[in-house]
Design brief:
Elements (H helix, E strand, L loop, with lengths): L21 H19 L1 H27 L9 H14 L2 H11 L7 H13 L3 H14 L4 H13 L3 H14 L4 H13 L3 H14 L4 H13 L4 H14 L4 H13 L3 H14 L4 H15 L2 H14 L4 H13 L3 H15 L7 H13 L3 H17 L3 H13 L14 H6 L6
Helix pairs in contact: 3-4, 4-5, 5-6, 5-7, 6-7, 7-8, 7-9, 8-9, 9-10, 9-11, 10-11, 11-12, 12-13, 13-14, 13-15, 14-15, 15-16, 15-17, 16-17, 17-18, 17-19, 18-19, 19-20, 19-21, 20-21
């Protein structure tokens, strides 16, 4: 009989290689092989590994930055600022409104009102090419808005495109037949095309639609001024239109010219001073002030300040450059006048219809400086332009200046009495 010996008392046999955990040996072998292969190809794998590591680190950095970023502030409501811009526009502070509209339009791309006001503000400021682009954006923002098409008509009128104005005004009326603004602009286009009776009928129609329409009163005032030559009636209607729309600075400027025609120079200057105080960069008001100071009150000294300001605001404003040169000639500053008038001539060559008067007065500046050879470079092309435009008085005056410089001697001047004094007059420069 044998007794069974418990396992704990049995003698254990030692095994130097155990296959009980064979998978550990296999894993170790695999790691060694992979490590050896990586070591062999370390130059190839290093850039890849480094790039991957950089990507991981960058992604981690972005996540950390996102987690630690401050809470964004709420976006300001653009309509709060728009309300302020509308207040400036309605009260006649056009330039302040214009700047605010320009900043806010990207935030309200489909709201027609700020686009509409922005376009009209550009027209009032005399920035007509910009206004035409803005008008297209207004129609794009709201293509079925009658006023959007109407302001497009006004922009076309500003660039002297009466046909485009009529087409846009008719589109506006197709959308809303009683749009008095579009009716009045249609009348302005008729007036530009010299269809004067049609313009008068349209003015009466506009006033019948809305007797408080500033555009209707403005149209009637222009008919009275340009067709009836009724200055007092025109002044009354212009004043009514401006009282109804204090932001229509262009109406006020035209009223100032009517005061000039009536020789009420103080009234014209007072009106323009009020405009310039609130809108110091309005080139139309600045030019008109210089014009009335010089040709009405007879003070080139007072005229020089607004004209110089006009050039500072817009150094390519041909009208202000030309008239400032005229004022400098009266102040006997011929060298400065020659520089300014030369600039006016250079810019004038870029427009469709250069003004031969610019050539005449540039030549006078150089004649005053004793430089007839240089004066001739303006007299000859100016003479040709004056002939092409059938301006007999100016042609004769240019011929006289040519003879004064002893050149172009075989040219016979046009027999027009009192030619040069007519060139001295200011009415033709309006």
């Amino acid at each position: 009989m044998y007794l069974k010996t418990p396992k704990r008392y049995r003698k254990h046999q030692t095994y130097y290689f155990s296959f009980k955990h064979w998978w550990l040996w296999l894993l170790t072998l695999t790691v060694c092989v992979v490590g050896w292969r990586v070591w062999i190809a370390r130059e190839t794998l290093a850039p890849v590994v480094g790039s991957y590591a950089e990507g991981v680190l960058a992604q981690a950095g972005e996540q950390v930055a996102t987690l630690t970023a401050p809470t964004p502030l709420p976006t300001a409501d653009p309509y709060i600022t728009l309300a302020v811009a509308h207040q400036h526009w309605n009260s006649g502070r056009v330039e302040q409104a214009l700047d605010m509209y320009a900043d806010l339009l990207p935030a309200v791309p489909n709201d027609p009102l700020p686009h509409y006001n922005y376009t009209r503000a550009l027209i009032v400021e005399g920035r007509y090419e910009e206004a035409l682009i803005a008008a297209e954006n207004t129609v794009t923002a709201s293509p079925f808005n009658s006023d959007a098409w109407a302001v497009r008509a006004e922009a076309h009128l500003a660039v002297e495109d009466a046909g485009g104005a009529i087409a846009s005004a008719l589109n506006a009326l197709a959308l809303y037949p009683d749009n008095v603004y579009a009716v009045a602009l249609l009348g302005q286009a008729y007036l530009a095309l010299e269809r004067t009776e049609k313009a008068r009928e349209t003015a009466e129609r506009a006033l019948a639609l809305d007797p408080n329409s500033p555009e209707a009163w403005y149209l009637l005032a222009r008919v009275r001024r340009l067709v009836d030559f009724d200055l007092e009636g025109a002044a009354e209607d212009f004043r009514t239109a401006y009282d109804l729309a204090p932001n229509r600075l262009d109406i006020a400027v035209e009223l100032a010219y009517v005061y000039w025609s009536m020789q009420d120079y103080d009234a014209g200057i007072a009106l323009l001073t009020g405009i310039i105080d609130n809108n110091p960069n309005n080139t139309q008001a600045l030019y008109a002030a210089g014009f009335i100071y010089n040709s009405g009150i007879g003070s080139p000294q007072l005229a020089s300040e607004p004209l110089q300001q006009c050039i500072t605001v817009d150094d390519q404003n041909i009208d202000c450059l030309y008239y400032y040169g005229r004022v400098l000639l009266r102040l006997e500053q011929s060298a400065d006048a020659a520089e300014v008038l030369t600039r006016a001539v250079e810019l004038g060559t870029q427009v469709a219809k250069p003004n031969p008067r610019h050539y005449y007065w540039a030549a006078q500046a150089y004649i005053n400086l004793g430089n007839c050879p240089l004066a001739m470079t303006y007299l000859e092309p100016g003479y040709e332009l004056a002939q092409q435009q059938d301006d007999a008085e100016l042609t004769s005056a240019l011929a006289d200046s040519v003879r004064q410089c002893s050149g172009f001697g075989d040219l016979a001047p046009v027999a027009t009495p009192e030619a040069t004094p007519a060139i001295e007059g200011e009415a033709n420069d309006l």
